[in-house]
Amino acid sequence: MREIGFGLIFSLAMALAAFLVAAWPVPGQPIAAFFPNGTSQPEMARAVAEAGGSILQLDAGAAIAFSVGDGRDYAASLYRAGAWLVIDGSLAQSCIRQARSLANG
Questions:
Q1: What is the pLDDT of residues 66-95, one digit of tens each?
Q2: Which of 12, 54, 4 has its CA nearest to residue 33?
């Protein structure tokens, strides 16, 4: 029974690691920064500006800011500015599009 539990935990860890590698932000490419629910557009815009990025799109309903930053530490700056998850922008847009199509039926 322990082997099955270990296998499940190991599989989940590997799946999470693969997702993080695929979602790793690329400097100079669009980045999606997820903020806590209820974060307003001005707060997200302030966080992006504080991190040194340029806003591409803000989605206050989902608390996501799509932006571009030139520095290699731009993603880390977004975390310091209040983002709880920073991933590749194209991956995030495709996930959001899929989730919305499923929600709308």
A1: 999 988 889 999 999 999 999 888 777 777
A2: 54
